[in-house]
């Protein structure tokens, strides 16, 4: 295989894509209520329109509350997953920095000792 790193990167990306799939916050809330038609031609139609609007308002507020609650749950899950991923990336970065710092220190000490032994300042 010419580019094993590329293949492994794509494989990891494909496996991670499943965890990135987002839930639709509307899924557990039922069907969104339809806005009612309004008729204001006379008092009877007006009063019926007000009643339909009040019923719609109650259903719409309940539906919206459900969607907001589900969205907050999804956002929290995304946030927790992101924190976990950031922690892993940070740990790798810190490990690399520590190895490089150790290498610098070790090589610098060796060169310093060799320089003294050879009479270089």
Give a structural overview.
The chain is an all-alpha fold and 121 residues long. The protein has helices spanning 4-20, 43-118. It is rod-shaped, with a radius of gyration of 32 Å. Keywords: Signal. Residues 1-23 form the signal peptide.
Spans where pLDDT lies below 50 across 5 or more residues = 4-11
Put simply, the count of helices is 2
Q: State the end-to-end CA separation.
A: 50 Å
- Class of secondary structure makeup: mainly alpha
- How would you spell out the order of helices and strands? HH
Radius of gyration over all CA atoms, rounded? 32 Å
Note the beta-strand portion: under 5%
Average pLDDT rating: 87
Number of strands: 0
The helical percent reads over 70%
Keywords: Signal
Signal peptide: 1-23
Question: How is the secondary structure organized here?
Answer:
Layout: H1 4-20, H2 43-118
Give a quick precis of the structure.
This protein is an all-alpha fold. The protein has helices at residues 4-20, 43-118.
Features:
single chain; 121 residues; mainly alpha; 77% helix; rod-shaped
């Amino acid at each position: 295989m010419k580019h094993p790193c590329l293949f492994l990167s794509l494989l990891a990306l494909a496996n991670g894509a499943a965890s990135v799939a987002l839930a639709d916050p509307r899924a557990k809330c039922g069907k969104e209520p339809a806005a009612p038609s309004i008729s204001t031609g006379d008092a009877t139609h007006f009063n019926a329109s007000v009643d339909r609007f009040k019923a719609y308002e109650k259903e719409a507020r309940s539906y919206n509350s459900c969607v907001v609650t589900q969205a907050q749950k999804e956002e929290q899950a995304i946030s927790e997953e992101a924190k976990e991923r950031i922690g892993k990336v940070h740990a790798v970065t810190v490990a690399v920095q520590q190895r490089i710092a150790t290498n610098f220190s070790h090589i610098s000490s060796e060169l310093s000792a060799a320089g003294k032994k050879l009479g270089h300042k």
